[in-house]
Amino acid sequence: MRVQAINNTIVNINSRQIKNKVISQTGTIDKPVSDVVAAQNIAFHGLLDSKPSLSERFKYGLEALDGNTLFIVTSNEQDSNRKLKEFSSKIDIPVTQIYTLVVKDEELKNDRQLNANFTIFKKGNEYYALNLGPTWGLTIENPNEKHSLKNHHSVGELTRLNSGEAIETGETIWSNETHKFIFNPPYRYNPSNAQKYLGYKSALSNANDIESFNQRTISSLTETKKQKNAGKTKYFHFSDVGGLDDVITELRKFVIRPAKYPEVFENVRLNKGILLYGPPRCGKTLLGKALANEAGLGWWYKNANEFKSGVVGSSEQSVRNYFQAIMKEPGVLFIDEFDAIAKSRDGSSNARYDDSLVNQLLGCMSDLEKSDTISFVIAATNRKDLLDDAMVASGRFGLHLEVPIPNEQALESIFNIHAKGKSFDDDVSLPELITKMKEWEFNGSDVAELITIGYFNALERLGINAKMDAGTFSSRDLQLISIAKTDLLDALKKIATQKIAR
Predict the structure, then answer these.
(1) Which residue has the higher pLDDT, 35 or 47?
(2) In 10 A of CB 109, how many CB atoms?
């Protein structure tokens, strides 16, 4: 029985409900991810030197389609994989198998690639085609009918296929055949030829997978609209980070583009160690989480103090284990409170206890920098001045990005992010609040807490708390909840008092 597990560079169905495994064409595992346990029965069969015609292989791919299979036709797998991941939400079947028909250069007459890669899948008794680009539109029409612009489908567009339609995606070499890709629903299900002559990737589950998969699926099908996000992991995006546009620009440049387009950076030494420094609670960890998600990379979080152990050699081994993990599978390792394990060595003969840990980190960073893996280590610290000089040098953590206390513009951006979905009275003056927040040096976490406490103050002021305690609260009372100026000012005073106490 199949579950929804598939190549992460290919597709992530239903907005990351079930994480994926990247399976290379040699059958080796490149990128395991955590939500679904290790896939089994992974297979790949390459194209044979003596192979049937393009049209025959296209027919074999159609015959292999069931309710869990994608059939991809492409002249550039990297491009089609990238687009398939981008438009995965258009595919509403649980995919566990992929067949790939790679169209070679010698099978094309004028162009070196298809005008449009595409994928076909079966849902019930109907077949659908999704245009994977990269740039040109995909024309799907009956060759015996007059050409119409309505049959021209843009990149990312999904269309239902009808019997006898030609899928026009570039001129092929065989002049005696007008169209190479004619869609006719197969009269039988027969995957044997597809497995022999097409690229084939599959991921099957064990019993534990099946139970977990069914739990998620049944929960998704039975949940109400208000419960849509219940129990799901929140994935952060850069849109959740306010006031750090300059830092985000740098992260896009040095991390996201190399992660998404590794072929562009093959001969460039990447900055695999990045230092985020600045006052506490200003968004460094949130940046790291959003970065991993935006780049489509795995995420590991570790507080530096967790590496420390009283057992000799255990701390160094723990560091090695994490670095070995990210060198096997692309990801972001985020080390918080980095100064706890990367303090400057004093250079005396009386080496500190943690000098050996610094040496281990330096060695691991050198190994990561030399590796081909697209992985990054993000180190966060409030005390950049304490770090060892060798640690913050080029080739280790050579890219330094400051995450400062937010200014007025940043405070406004952060406030608006956390204010989404909430109602405010007309007397709330954001400029007045920003002036007070600036005076008390509010960080990003303080702004979020301001709105939280303000909301709770509103519940008390409006008598909502009393209704909940008495059991008389109804959904109609939700319409009454609005945060007033006094609610926020009281919250601001409370947070300011706590900051003074610290």
Answers:
(1) 47
(2) 11
